[in-house]
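In the design runs reported in the main text, the only information available to the sequence generator was the tokenized backbone. The following block is the verbatim input for one such run; it is reproduced so that readers can re-run the procedure and compare outputs position by position.
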């Protein structure tokens, strides 16, 4: 019964993505992680100075984890860490400053982290944005491509040894249901970088969120059997400062039904805390695996996936194409 209702909620989008979806699914979804499930464990959350990311830090801390709260603005990082510590006395929150879209900053920060810690049990690539105008990073990459795809990929490469140190660890790419509107194609570098015509922030958002899902799936395949589980996920529609700024009309129409930030953070936290087995696609929402394409869409073209992975490798300047090596 749960399965049929769950699928119907998912396909209806409006019912599944709002708080109605999680409200109903809670009746049958898998159990919460045990109290203190993450005691002695260490997690990095990017984009943790606002919205879903900040809520995630609180949820991990409540499970006993040491949480590295990463943002690009030191003052905001300090404020968010202070808020979590004040609401959860005794919690271990480490402040981290890194602009995920700046590949040099990612290299410097990951090198620094590797000198400070021995192991990492979770890494959530949550940082995200949807700007109205095209902007470039110091390396000349379009900012959404860099923040959603290139930075997280490079960060994963750089932190692989730390993630492989414990018996098991999880990496989550926080995507969006918006990715369903942008099936992966053999995008040229100009298209990846949104140089193909007038900039449309929503279109670039959907494309880069699709790229995250494909990348998560490729990483999951690559790391099968290594103890590192990789997932894509989407949070549903969540009331956050990001939504208020980027989509004010959408927000005012859907406001009564938008999820609370902790609800939006739930599946990513649950994935890291429980590391469930995952099938190809590896895309999750509301503690269940979801399709990466709907029936009326064609399946992912494997040649487009290979071309995309090679482009990401080249654009991040990773010395070797980690993903192809394992496939
Ligand atoms: N809210 C939703 O309904 C929804 C739906 C689908 C998917 N998502 C995804 O969920 C994630 C969180 O979204 P949200 O709604 O919580 O957004 P939000 O309130 O705007 O929070 C985004 C966070 O990412 C940070 N960030 C942006 N660019 C960064 C960079 N280059 N380096 C480091 N941090 C950076 C922001 O920091 P600053 O404050 O410094 O900008 C902020 O802390 C995003 O990936 C988003 O795409 C959200």
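Verbatim output:
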């Amino acid at each position: 019964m749960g399965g049929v209702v769950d699928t119907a909620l998912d396909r209806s989008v409006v019912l599944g993505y709002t708080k109605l979806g999680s409200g109903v699914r809670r009746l049958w979804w898998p159990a919460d992680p045990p109290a203190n499930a993450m005691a002695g464990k260490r997690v990095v959350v990017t984009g943790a100075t606002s919205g879903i990311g900040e809520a995630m830090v609180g949820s991990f801390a409540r499970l006993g984890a040491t949480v590295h709260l990463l943002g690009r603005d030191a003052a905001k990082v300090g404020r968010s860490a202070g808020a979590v510590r004040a609401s959860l006395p005794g919690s271990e929150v480490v402040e981290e400053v890194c602009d995920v879209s700046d590949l040099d900053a990612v290299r410097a920060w990951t090198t620094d982290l590797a000198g400070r810690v021995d192991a990492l049990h979770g890494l959530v690539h949550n940082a995200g944005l949807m700007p109205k105008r095209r902007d470039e990073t110091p390396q000349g990459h379009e900012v959404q491509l860099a923040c959603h795809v290139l930075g997280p990929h490079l960060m994963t490469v750089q932190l692989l040894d730390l993630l492989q140190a414990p018996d098991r660890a999880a990496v989550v790419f926080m995507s969006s249901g918006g990715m369903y509107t942008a099936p992966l194609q053999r995008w040229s570098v100009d298209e990846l970088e949104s140089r193909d015509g007038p900039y449309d922030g929503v279109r670039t958002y959907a494309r880069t969120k699709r790229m995250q899902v494909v990348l998560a799936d490729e990483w999951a395949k690559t790391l099968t059997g290594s103890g590192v589980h990789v997932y894509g996920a989407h949070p549903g529609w969540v009331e956050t400062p990001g939504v208020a700024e980027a989509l004010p009309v959408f927000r005012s129409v859907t406001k009564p039904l938008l999820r609370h930030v902790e609800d939006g953070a739930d599946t990513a936290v649950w994935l890291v805390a429980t590391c469930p087995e995952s099938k190809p696609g590896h895309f999750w929402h509301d503690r269940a695996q979801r399709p990466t394409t709907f029936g009326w869409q064609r399946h992912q073209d494997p040649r487009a996936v290979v071309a995309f992975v090679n482009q990401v490798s080249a654009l991040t300047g990773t010395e070797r194409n980690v993903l192809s090596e394992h496939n």
